[in-house]
């Protein structure tokens, strides 16, 4: 059994200063992220890092209009890490650059406090991606200007968002989706940061609605009061699904009828195991309604039915080297206590460490 110990970085000040601290503290890890994604862009899309930067530049005007403070934060990261601004924008656009050929094959679910055993709302996820990128992960505590809430999240070094929660009790997981095409617009990781900064569910939906969206994704959002929703986002439209039974799950295919009727679902072609993973987590949740607690959430995340492409994913030796996905980490959010429990590898073999807001 291994135990996690991700670097914990506290960011405060104005957006540029927050970014500068991030860049300085994580300079080597950010360079490792760039090296990893340079390899992945070439492997998945046949694109060099310089070509990827050229594509990423097209997103800058949309980010600047949507969230100018995040432009400043990325400029700060670049200065702190002694890198080019374009390098940081490219990292934060990584999903758009590889969207035609691969997805993070994640499984996420949320459980309302109204049906959990201990009266706590949980939002949980396995992050299935290339194992080597796990070496770049950091925990960020971001103190934003009031009235924005503080953030506590796990991020790939150099990326300004990730999975986590805020001081208002909003927790956010993310599933990659794809229509097989994108457009110039706001990258999905920028949307994720704005959703994480939302004090209410309504604000989270509004963050998606007002964006000129470049690509697709699902945001599973929960509140400390026990509300759980999926916000499915595509370039042409978005949809909201509510946890009518007290729980909700998502994998890597679209569920919103308004999107399904107008977009080709490319994600289910790239990762056809998405159907089994969604069906399996829903069966597990349905069987244990009223019994869910943190220990059971961990058990769900460790499920191996349909291995190796299970909820707890392990590398499939049949896949080409460099394209083998695995559950790099697992996260359980206790929204009442504002605490993240995170493993540093597959949840079946790794202990979970807790991370909370520091003074």
Automatic annotation (TrEMBL):
InterPro entries hit by this protein: C45_proenzyme-like (IPR047794), Peptidase_C45 (IPR047801), Peptidase_C45_hydrolase (IPR005079)
Q: Species lineage, top-down?
A: Bacteria, Thermotogati, Synergistota, Synergistia, Synergistales
**Taking every annotated instance into account, which residue ranges of this chain make up the domain Peptidase C45 hydrolase?**
117-342
The protein here is known as: Peptidase C45 acyl-coenzyme A:6-aminopenicillanic acid acyl-transferase
Please indicate if the UniProt record lists Transferase as a keyword.
yes
UniProt cross-references to Pfam families, sorted A to Z: AAT (PF03417)
Source organism: Aminobacterium colombiense (strain DSM 12261 / ALA-1)
**Single GO MF descriptor:** transferase activity
- Which superkingdom heads the taxonomic lineage of this protein's source? Bacteria
Q: Does the keyword S-adenosyl-L-methionine apply?
A: no
Note the Gene3D superfamilies from the entry: 1.10.10.2120, Penicillin V Acylase, Chain A
Query: Keyword annotations for this protein?
Result: Transferase
Q: Which PANTHER family match?
A: BETA-ALANYL-DOPAMINE_CARCININE HYDROLASE, PEPTIDASE C45
